[in-house]
Amino acid sequence: MYARTIPIVPAVRSGQGSKDASFEYLTTRKDELIGWARKFSIFPYPFVTACCAMEFMAVSASPYDTDRFGAALPRFSPRQADLLMVVGTVTHKQAPVLLRVYEQMCEPKWVMAFGVCATSGGFYQNYAALPGIDRVIPVDIYIPGCPPRPEMVIDGIMQLQDRIARSSHPILTKDF
Amino acid sequence: MPAPIFDTLQQELVPTSGPAVVSHGVLVFVLTPAELLPTARRLRDAFGFDVFLDVTAVDWLGQVPRFEVVHHFYSTRHTLRVRLKTRVAEADPGVDSLLPLYGSAAFMERECHDMYGIRFHGNADLRPILLYEGFVGHPLRKDYSKTHEQPLVPYRN
Amino acid sequence: MNRPAMDTPPVSPIRNPVRSIFETTQRDDSVIVSIGPSHPATHGTVQIIAELDGERVLRTDVHCGYLHRGFEKECEDHTWHNLIPYVDRLNYVSALINDFAYCGAVETLMDVQITPRCRYLRTLLSEYSRLVDHLTCLAAGLMELGAMTAFLYLVMVRDFMYEHLAALTGARVTYTYGRIGGLARDLPEGWLVRMEEILKQYEEFIARVHALVDRNRIFIDRMRNVGVISTANALSYGYTGVILRSTGVPRDLRRDTPYLAYAELDFDIPVGIMGDNYDRYFVRMREMDESVYMMRQLSEILQSPAAAGPINVDDRRCTFPDKPLVYTEIESLINHFKLVMDGPVVPAGEVYLAHEAPNGELGFYLVSTGGGVPYKVHCRAPSFVHMGGVHLMLNGGQLADIVPTFGSINMIGGECDR
Description:
By secondary structure, chain A is α/β, with parallel strands linked by helices.
């Protein structure tokens, strides 16, 4: 699987002129601008299944507001969303559905595993529960907790925002 | 405090194995598979047990017959519960379906079939309800290992 | 056009987890769609395969089980005490009621009498959980109709309750607070005072929601005469709880088969008229008010001498000894060791005990063969039984009516699929 968001690696150049340096400067600034825009306008797809949904509702509502982070407006169509929040246990029966939703999302997309059941299966280590969604889709941020307190969720969102801000946002990807 | 309806039931509905006993507030009948549907029908029509609460099974691995199918009923009129227990063998684990009597039997019998493999004669729709198409085996049987997974999506790693 | 052929991605070999009961349409102008399971209206875990004639629903095939987490199989691997966290996560919106129903069933089987203080406190917390459950159901239901303000009001009140319960139990949503023979800990200082403050705020917020929604033309149009179920169908399909009461049948386990301290409390049973969505909404609103009334009565009782005493019954078979004793006395040490490693020994037998959960009759059927590990723990989940009859409410209605109808049934995935 190729990386969807590529971390910025400082280019090692020897004896090049200022032309390359200024190009680097512009692309870095472009990445920072796009990163800033993307991190503050996250459209989550709440793939909500179980008990963590209660904390998801709590974190989206007034006392702990995700709207402050620009991450409140859920998009219930994967085509229009960029953050797949997997909230709650994913069972083997639900796994094809999860994979299909993930595949329908467009780049750039990030995945958040909300709760221990999504992270590792939680304490359901049996025939029915998927032992962590990273068995079927790549995950960017894991938020443990059963269910996690809203402050933990916000911490997770902020760390994901840092990651989005720091990563490279190519305008032309290798698929074009 | 024995309820009068329990006395009536103990006198009127006597299955072949003997009269019913009261266990922790619930009247328990032990029946043969053939007596199940007529008894349930009498309970509903003559004695007012109008809510079919639950059907489940217990796997007595090592005993013969192996499975015990347990039905629970509730009467809104008498506010009392009744339990019917039936033993079925492993080779042909089947009982009559209560679908002609109660609509709730549809989903509950599907679950019992899913988990234990009990067949309900008269319920044509025994598709998996809690498990999925392609799942082999009946997980709540004692010889099914708890961690034996059958993933639908191949793992990435 | 000399464009090189693009690499076609391989066809996904993933099998469909369900098989619909109808594959072809009954008429040539109808279409079969799959609503869910990842859908906000179906709470993420139910798939409704519906045949539609335009916007009208002709027939539906409801599939649940997407959240089957193997609760019963897990329970057979844990001691009677260790499986309480799993029980919590059945109906996760009113987790305390699951705890108390399960612990009550084990106590019945062990013939353990809980103390009066524990009884009153369990009743109080059951009603508290009922409040939280109804608040969540109404908040989600109203949000799905578009009433975002009501959602925010109700979730704000619910959040106060979560923090308050976290002060008592340590957790906001799933508490693991019930113990066999009692509770995990007693009330902290000032807990009942804060409870009264929250109840006053609850009344203020509920008054606002009533004002916004009750006589709102749009709300009435979307909820009145929608999702109707008759009493006969409700009884035949095993409906209990709010849905049965919304059809006009005043049956409530708290009144009919009183358990805990309900026999000593004064409360009404609200019933509906015709079993539609509006009735279920209103029955829930009124039940919340009754719960608040009961909680105030219990708060007074808890501060009176009638509820003085220990919270855990003094029975070595199930109650953990105090930690200072465990560290100093050999008997308590061994007792603690046996309770942790082997679990509380429950005599052989079986029991079915049901409590009135916010969804209906929540029953636990336990089978014990003696020993500290259960032979079978079965949960009679009201949501699962209700799913069996939901097609009656959906067929013949509009596609858009699926949303409020499903919301008014309060299907909780953890309980439905166990």
